[in-house]
Amino acid sequence: MGIYKKLRIKLGQEVAAAKVGISVRSARRLDGTEALPSQREARAWRTRSDPFEAVWQSELVPMLEAAPALTATTLLEEIQRRWPGQYEDALLRTLQRRVRTWSASHGKEREVFFAQAHPPGRLGLSDFTRAAVLQVTIAGATLLHLLYQFALAYSGWRYVEVVLGGESFMALSSGLQNAAWMMGGVPEEHRTDSLAAAFNNQAEHELLTRRYEELCKHYSMRPSRNNLGVSHENGSIESRQGTLKRTMEQALLLRGHRDFADLDAYRRFVAEVFGRLNARVASKFNEERGMLRALPVRRSSDYEEVDARVTKYSTMTVKKVLYTAPSRLVGYRLKVRVYSEKLEGWLGNVCVLELRRGQPDPLSGRGKVVDYRHLLPALKRKPGALARSVLRDALFPRTEYRQMWTQLKDQLPEAAACRLMVGLLDLAGNGGCEAELAQRLALLLAAGALPDLEQLQQEMAPRPALYPTVTVVLPELASYDRLLEAA
Predict the structure, then answer these.
(1) CATH architecture of 123-289
(2) Nearest CA-CA partner of 299 in 126, 174, 125
């Protein structure tokens, strides 16, 4: 409008309108007013009738006051039910504008978020995230795992660790301590989420809270947790959980496949990926590292102790998971240290057993970790017990062994099948050829043939070492007289 007014001083109406690209009619309207469009008073009258005038104050507003969360769609459906045929679906957009205006004028107060400043060395945060979406496999088998992440709020430096099983205090303790010793210090405050997945009842909640506070006290950190269901209180780490998964997904895409030879290879891959990420914030991390508090002299214990008795079945149950144990421990009560990924059985001050930790099945709530080597001596004495043992299927270390058992029991008498299968397990365990024997069994299964145990033992069993024959010749006693004569 300002440009048109300036041109209008020297030019005619039609020419000035053409120069600014407006119609003559618009130019005539501009000539009749001195105020800019933005300076004109807002229209105070309606240009068309209000379709909801009859029900807005009497019905719609009371419903909104009683339940402000009602949507325009719900309100329109209710009005259509009360007044059939009078309100069409095309009025939805009009009602949405009316509801939006009413909410802005009369709605309830909304939550306000306050941006926080994080000085260096003040805050570190921890959280877990499920990594099933990454579809990682170990030797072809799907890896069900979590990723634990620790991050410094100021610099953004992070530590990521693979966690097998679910959220637990042991996993938090292990990850947090590993991160602290990698940083070379600890922040003033450590914040985590409510860890609701790590306990089942109030007693467990209180125990976890006490242990978490003791862990932070050991490292001279102030413990804090966000309220249950209020994830934005842990926002500095929650936002990084999204980047964690995106970074891992992109790294796996660049790698070309998601299968790893073993768990250690996957852990090295994760460390490499986030090592590159940390290199981007190296300058800020070096600045923050100088503000971190000193580490204690030693680490805190990152395990939980429970008592377990080894039963006459050479098994023990720890946290709803059944474990096998060597028969020499039958009858003993062990002090079991439960780590995030392993178990240690202690008898006094001596560690007598170490096992990988298992997790309960999500459906049954129970789990099994069976090592056939523990039961081999007993099975060799009682091979017939294999046929109906409740642990039979879990005893077989690989699929090929399980399939071979099915073939043996179908083609041989039960006693012969048990003896042959126990012999194969003995060869695999004591011969150190479990994988090699599994490959041979796969070939036999494909051919429908039965294994020849003696031939397999000759081919795969370790041969006893051959020691040289040493002949010791004792000298005659008279020969020592020559020494006296020489003296």
Answers:
(1) 2-Layer Sandwich (3.30)
(2) 174
What is the percent of the chain with per-residue pLDDT over 70, rounded to a whole number?
A: 92
Strand partners, 334: 308
Q: Which amino acid is at 284?
A: K
> What stretches of 300-349 adopt beta strand conformation (E)?
304-309, 315-318, 321-324, 333-338, 342-347
Strand partners, 186: 293
State how far the Cα of 468 lies from the Cα of 462, in Å rounded to an integer: 18
Q: In one letter, which amino acid is 264?
A: D
pLDDT digits (tens, 9 = 90+) for 430-464: 888 998 999 999 999 999 999 999 999 888 876 66
CB 310 within 8 A of CB 322: no
CB 186 within 8 A of CB 146: no
The answer to pTM > 0.70 is: no
> Phi and psi for 130 in degrees, rounded to 5?
-75, 135
Nearest to 229 by CA among 183, 193, 254: 193
Phi, psi of 123 (to 5 degrees): -135, 135
Structure tokens at 454: 């003696």
pLDDT score for 242? 78
The residues with which 189 forms a beta bridge, in sequence order, are: 123, 222
Which of the residue ranges 307-316, 360-369, 426-435 would you say has the lowest mean pLDDT?
360-369
CA 382 from centre of chain? 43
The Cα 404–Cα 398 span in angstroms is: 10
Distance CA 398, CA 400 (A): 5
Contact 139, 259 (CB under 8 A): yes
- In the predicted model, is pLDDT for residue 107 greater than 70? yes
SS3 367: strand
What gap in Å lies between CA 1 and CA 27, rounded to an integer? 9
3-state SS, residue 154: coil
Question: Residue 197 pLDDT more than 80?
Answer: no
Q: Which two tokens stand for residue 127?
A: 């959280």
Please report, for the chain, how many H helices and E strands are present, in that order: 18, 15
Q: CA–CA distance from 115 to each of 233, 235, 236, 242 (Å)?
A: 11, 10, 11, 20
Spans of all domains in the chain: 2-39, 56-106, 123-289, 304-369, 373-460
Q: Count of CB atoms within 10 A of residue 98's CB?
A: 20
C-alpha span between 75 and 66 (Å, rounded): 12
DSSP state, residue 91: G
Percent of the chain that is helix, strand, coil (3-state, to 5)? 50, 15, 35
